[in-house]
Amino acid sequence: MSLALDPAAQDLLFREARTANTFTDEPVTDEQVQAIYDLVKYGPTAFNQTPLRITLVRSPEARERLVQHMAEGNQAKTAAAPLVAILSADNEFHEELPTLFPAFPQAKDLFFSERPAREGAAALNAALQAAYFIIGVRAAGLAAGPMTGVDLEGVRKEFLDDDHTPLMVVNIGRPGEGAWYPRSPRLAYDEVVTTV
User: Fold this and answer.
1) Contact yes or no for 155/166 (Cβ under 8 A)
2) C-alpha distance from residue 67 to each of 54, 92, 133, 160 (Å)
3) Collapsing DSSP states into helix, strand and coil, what is residue 23?
4) What is the pLDDT of residues 50-109, one digit of tens each?
């Protein structure tokens, strides 16, 4: 059975896409980011939660503050990327549930009245949304450089508040010269899938 998605789109989103390590200086516009979000907001989450929050780092001053929290090997990449996004989980996402999941508005209080339950749900569902965001960046013809080599607690203190948990930093732009490392191996289907 073949996939419904055009082979060129499969290559763009998956087979040819890799984490970018260098970028050109071509800017990434707010309109491009809006288009990415307007596509990926439809990705499924539990109870239609939308805990992902995106902080765009554009100003030189903010970039400087962010770079100091990056692991040494990621600092130059983050300093040079046309746009950097901090992806975080909003632990107060449940406040939006009556609007986002009108079929079951009581889910807000029934399942998410306690902070630990919200944090677990926010982390899982924001991670799903972060993956959709990376695919959306690729769908826009851009390259993404997602990184967890960062002092996340430092990023939280510098850019967020106690209700937001940073997940990763993503460099975004058109790939530059030498952007790609060689493709790393992947596990085979029979190494991952078990039928019971």
Assistant:
1) yes
2) 17, 27, 22, 15
3) strand
4) 999 999 999 999 999 999 999 999 999 999 999 999 999 999 999 999 999 999 989 999
31-46 residue pLDDT tens: 999 999 999 999 999 9
Check residue 104 and report its DSSP letter.
S
- Cα angle 60, 151, 59; round to 5: 10
Give the number of other Cβ atoms within 10 Å of residue 98's Cβ: 14
Q: What is the rounded CA–CA span in Å between residue 153 and residue 156? A: 5
Cα 38 off chain centre by: 14
Q: What DSSP designation does 93 have?
A: G
